[in-house]
C-alpha cells in the first residue's frame, strides 16, 4: 500500500537535496565537485574533533555514529511487543451511538 494518488510528499522531501545541489553548483565551476570535496574534508575533520577525548571526558563515539548514519543509513529498529514478544495489533471499532 503506497501513498494515495496525487500525493506530492516525495517531491517535497527532495527540496533540501536540490537546494544543496544548486548551492554547490553556484560555488564551483565543475558542477560542485570541488566544493563538495572541500566540505567533505571539513566534515571529516569535524568528526575527528568530536571523537578526540579530553581530560574531563573520554573519546566520544557521536562522530562515528553520525558518519555511519550518513554512509550506511540509520540502523533499522525492530518493533517488538512487551518483553521482546510478538506485537499484538488490536482493531477496535466503535458502534454508532443511537439515542
* Terminal-residue CA separation: 38 Å
Number of strands: 0
H-E order = HHHH
Helix content: 40-55%
Q: What's the Cα radius of gyration?
A: 23 Å
Which class of secondary structure composition applies to the elements? mainly alpha
Number of helices: 4
Largest sheet: none
Percent of sequence in beta strands = under 5%
What form results from the Cα inertia axes? flat
Low-confidence stretches are none
Report the average pLDDT across residues.
74
Q: Can you give me a brief rundown of this structure?
A:
The protein is 48% helix and 0% strand. By secondary structure, it is mostly helical.
Task: Describe this structure as you would to a colleague.
- This protein is mainly alpha-helical and 99 residues long.
- It has a domain of 65 residues.
- Helix content is 48%, strand content 0%.
- The chain contains 4 helices and no strands.
- The longest helix is centred in the middle third of the chain and has 19 residues.
- It is flat, with a radius of gyration of 23 Å.
- The relative contact order is 0.06.
- The model has no long low-confidence stretch (mean pLDDT 74).
